[in-house]
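Input chain follows. Return structure tokens only.
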Amino acid sequence: MMTVTLITIIIVPLLMLVGALALFFVIRYFIKYNAQVNKKKSPQQEELDRMKIEDLK
């Protein structure tokens, strides 16, 4: 019975730590992915930029 308790005391915190790290990396990935998507211009925005440049010529 003692070994089951000891294993539980060791494994449960390790699993919680692994889960917290996994959650951290998933959140970090989505923040980076969202920033990358927001940097990309839409086709309409690119066309507007082109029109502005042509107006300046």
